[in-house]
Amino acid sequence: MPERPERPEKPEIRLRRVYDPPEPEADGLRVLVDRLWPRGLSKAAAEVDEWPKAVTPSTELRKWFHDGGQAGEFRQRYEAELAEPEAVAELDRLRGLVGGGPVTLLTAVKDPGSSHAAILAERLSD
User: Rounded to an integer, what distance in angstroms lies between the CA atom of residue 29 and that of residue 36?
Assistant: First the structure.
């Protein structure tokens, strides 16, 4: 029976609030995944390495969701945005960065695990 090729190790992608203090040993590359810069936070304090706006939810989608949009439909709309050429190119570039060590996706939302950042982490892990 032929040997199975080894599966590459699943990339280490963390989700954190951008307002939490950086953890240099664990965070690795710090990537802000919000379209707008977080209120009240200086760029020096945030210690953000990347800010790829092409993979953040559009202003229209963000406003739609905050006006009462449903989570399931948000996910579908966001995944459609991530399928656009500019987002696909940025996702490919970020996947290359993820392969180089831990990556922390940063967002201002209160629960990163239930946000667009979690959807993005799934896509980067594919």
Answer: 19
Q: Nearest Cα to 54, choosing from 78, 22, 29, 28? A: 78
Phi, psi (deg, nearest 5) at residue 115:
-120, -175
Tokens, residue 100: 């180089």
Contact 29, 124 (CB under 8 A): no
Contact (CB, 8 A) for 30 and 22:
yes
Q: What is the pTM of this model?
A: 0.88
Q: Which amino acid is at 25?
A: E
Please give the C-alpha separations between residue 97 and each of 41, 66, 108, in angstroms, as whole numbers. 25, 31, 22
13-58 tens-digit pLDDT: 999 999 999 998 899 999 999 999 999 999 999 999 999 999 999 9
